[in-house]
């Protein structure tokens, strides 16, 4: 049995709590947040606390608070030499106070309050300063069905950065698709199956192999037509830059 | 029973042939291509031809050849006043020779040779010059399980353009994710569940509501760190431009 204390009550903390709570070999001993409000509804399932001095002994303490608050919260912990991990892609493992045994338990996924999350679709990137602490974090991830990967801080930074490209930036391309279709009275909904299929393809074909379209073919007529349709200068700039990027990748860039 | 002749033997033609061939109320009378080679393997299922003068009578002729070849092929058809449609997002309905009854049957999806395609995930955008021709195309789409939408040429152009954003450009963001992870010895595979989840979210939450991340939060520290990690100038430019675009959308842009 692995005992865990969760600190924080946001998206990640809440999803982790639910997953651990269902897992057979994990017990969530306490759930801390600086205010009880978001966790008080769980008080029949777990001891909820808002006072760090009441923290009990556990195998792993998981700090799932905003990036900027991780270091400070770790300093305030009223003990030493226990295993404390954060869940951030962008924060170093050394940002946790050095009186503690330190690690990272980074779930490489996008969480939102409402949507359920199956942790088998959440790769956990694990880092520890002391090798000995690795196995318990791995066991913890496995207990909720997650694939795991040992990832050092540089790799984690780069994964976090890549996540911005494939998640935030991709979502902004969807948003632009939404804006330009609605501006012509066309339905964004018609694009949803294509959005889904594009992501599905990436699961088994490399993005290099999957690429198609006017940019890759250097179909100048279509590109010109598209730039004419686009009214928004920022959308035009994005169109040009990503077209160029595709052409660089596929060796079809002819300069312009 | 709707009788159809398919012209062309590429991705779209092949997927349409298979779907029509399975449909209860559609008969593919002939399959034409300028060379028999890619279609000869289907000769037990359909009459395959490479000579336009042997074309038989049918309710609908579907030209699924490269955009540039549509007009010319339609001119060469040895009959008048029959319903001929193309399958392109980027070609006007008037590009089909005017001796014919003209229309468009545009499948808004990305097809590839190997991957199977369920046509319930392929919205068909229909346009006809003569209203009377609309219903047979709609019936044809319904027979293969596709949702349909009446779409005029301007709307179709804009859908095609939006498809470039959500398909080609998104796929290029995946590619960049691939490049930057592999360059640090991190695994692109770890991003695949996130890619999938991002597209899944877009099925039921608007991209506006779904957005998260450092750009939206205007988290300057993380943005600066990311720009430092990026070595490739083009990747940097894309990062900056899409960050700015997100900030414009969400009103968090503070100048730079
Ligand atoms: N969301 C994701 O998709 C995702 C994915 C992977 C990793 N992460 C990482 O997981 C961590 C948590 O992210 P999240 O999305 O769950 O955050 P969130 O939903 O915004 O919740 C933030 C939590 O941090 C607490 N907090 C903020 N400032 C604090 C402070 N000064 N002292 C104590 N607690 C403080 C908040 O407490 P109150 O409830 O009192 O405001 C809240 O419980 C971050 O490191 C993030 O980078 C997030
Ligand atoms: N692929 C997609 O995801 C997709 C999605 C929606 C719409 N579309 C549209 O569907 C149409 C077909 O696209 P596709 O992807 O199926 O194309 P494709 O796989 O590249 O196949 C092109 C076909 O056109 C034929 N062709 C090319 N030039 C020709 C010419 N001068 N005369 C006669 N035939 C010629 C080729 O014949 P050979 O076999 O002899 O070379 C081949 O059968 C295009 O209008 C495209 O815009 C494609």
Automatic annotation (TrEMBL), chains A, B:
InterPro entries: 6-PGluconate_DH-like_C_sf, DUF2520, NAD(P)-bd_dom_sf, P5C_Rdtase_cat_N, TM1727-like_C_sf
Residue ranges of domain Pyrroline-5-carboxylate reductase catalytic N-terminal in the record: 4-87
Top-rank taxon: Bacteria
Domain DUF2520: 122-246
Protein name per its UniProtKB record: Rossmann-like and DUF2520 domain-containing protein
Protein species of origin: Gelatiniphilus marinus
């Amino acid at each position: 049995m692995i005992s865990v204390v969760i600190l924080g009550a946001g998206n990640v903390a809440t999803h982790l709590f639910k997953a651990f709570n269902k897992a057979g070999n994990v017990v969530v001993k306490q759930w801390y947040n600086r205010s009880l409000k978001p966790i008080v509804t769980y008080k029949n399932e777990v001891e909820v606390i808002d006072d760090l001095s009441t923290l009990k002994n556990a195998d792993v303490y998981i700090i799932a608070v905003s990036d900027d608050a991780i270091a400070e919260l770790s300093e305030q912990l009223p003990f030493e030499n226990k295993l404390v991990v954060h869940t951030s892609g962008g924060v170093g493992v050394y940002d946790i106070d050095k009186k503690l045994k330190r690690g990272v338990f980074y779930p490489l996924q996008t969480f939102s309050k409402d949507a359920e999350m199956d942790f088998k679709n959440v790769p956990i990137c694990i880092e520890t300063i002391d090798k000995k602490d690795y196995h318990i974090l791995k066991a913890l991830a496995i207990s909720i069905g997650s694939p795991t990967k040992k990832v050092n801080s540089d790799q984690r930074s780069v994964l976090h950065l890549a996540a911005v490209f494939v998640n935030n930036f991709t979502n902004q391309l969807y948003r632009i698709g939404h804006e330009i279709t609605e501006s012509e009275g066309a339905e964004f909904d018609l694009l949803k199956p294509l959005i889904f299929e594009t992501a599905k393809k990436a699961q088994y074909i490399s993005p290099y192999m999957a690429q198609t379209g006017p940019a890759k073919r250097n179909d100048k007529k279509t590109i010109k037509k598209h730039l004419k349709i686009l009214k928004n200068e920022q959308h035009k700039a994005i169109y040009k830059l990503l077209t160029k990027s595709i052409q660089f990748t596929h060796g079809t860039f002819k300069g312009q």
